[in-house]
Design brief:
Layout: E1 2-6, H1 7-11, H2 30-34, H3 39-49, E2 55-60, E3 63-68, H4 70-79, E4 83-87, H5 90-97, H6 110-117, H7 121-132, E5 136-142, E6 145-152, E7 158-160, E8 163-165, H8 167-174, E9 185-188, H9 190-200, H10 207-210, H11 214-225
Parallel strand pairs: 2-4
Antiparallel strand pairs: 1-4, 2-3, 5-6, 5-9, 6-7, 7-8
């Protein structure tokens, strides 16, 4: 799983870090991590972009413990962050870390707009659909493959990572890429779109990470809807 956790809660967790007593907490080794030669660079990066790779938290007989991310939690504390992403899945953390674009969970940055406007739009459409029940809309085709996926807001507008759009604006945007220059808008089923995301797209952004962007997308709808003509 992938979630968001308070920095203060992580600092109070046990740590298996070397040369520490068995009941050491993450906050007990902050000064040790600050002495790393790469720490200033990491701190500057996290101040600018937040934490893009979740820390790993696991369970043991003695309680939850911070298994990976001691430098990141130190930098998050020093940068004044209050909440950070976490996972209990080492493979998921590694995959997020090696993605071709660095995405901060839940933050709509230029990197997120680029990712979810192109290769990962199908995953986002499924995630928003699962959260709201709004129908998924497939935009046109190029060489037999869909150009884009969006969801239909109850108010009528089409929604993606950039907010709300009118049907005409969507058709105008995608008609150049569409077969025969016709960007059609058709309702798509969840299972087909999810299958497309896993198979045809290769799940470029893990679905656990995709879902963290849904609240930010929903929050952006009102702002963009007010600028869209009816």
């Amino acid at each position: 799983m992938l979630g968001i956790i308070a920095v203060a809660d992580v600092l109070d967790m046990l740590t298996p870090d070397a040369n520490q007593t068995s009941n050491a907490r993450a906050r007990d080794i902050l000064n040790q991590k600050r002495r790393s030669p790469h720490y200033p660079e990491l701190l500057d990066q996290i101040r600018q972009h937040g934490i893009t790779t979740p820390v790993v938290i696991r369970d043991s007989a003695d309680g939850r413990y911070l298994a990976d991310g001691h430098h990141r939690i130190t930098a998050a504390h020093d940068a004044g962050l209050t909440r950070i992403p976490w996972t209990d899945n080492w493979l998921l953390a590694d995959r997020i870390n090696t993605m071709p674009w660095q995405l901060t969970p839940g933050r709509i940055t230029p990197a997120a707009v680029e990712a979810f406007t192109r290769g990962a739009c199908a995953g986002l459409a499924v995630a928003v659909h699962d959260a709201t029940g709004w129908p998924i809309v497939e935009v046109g085709h190029c060489d037999g493959l869909p150009l884009h996926f969006m969801v239909r807001h109850p108010g009528g507008h089409l929604v993606d990572i950039r907010g709300a759009h009118t049907d005409d604006d969507v058709r105008d945007e995608w008609e150049f890429d569409a077969d025969d220059s016709i960007a059609t808008l058709t309702v798509a089923t969840r299972d087909v779109v999810l299958g497309c995301y896993f198979v045809d797209c290769g799940e470029p952004v893990p679905m656990d990470l995709v879902r963290t962007f849904v609240p930010a997308v929903l929050a952006s709808i009102h702002r963009t809807e007010t600028s869209c003509p009816a």
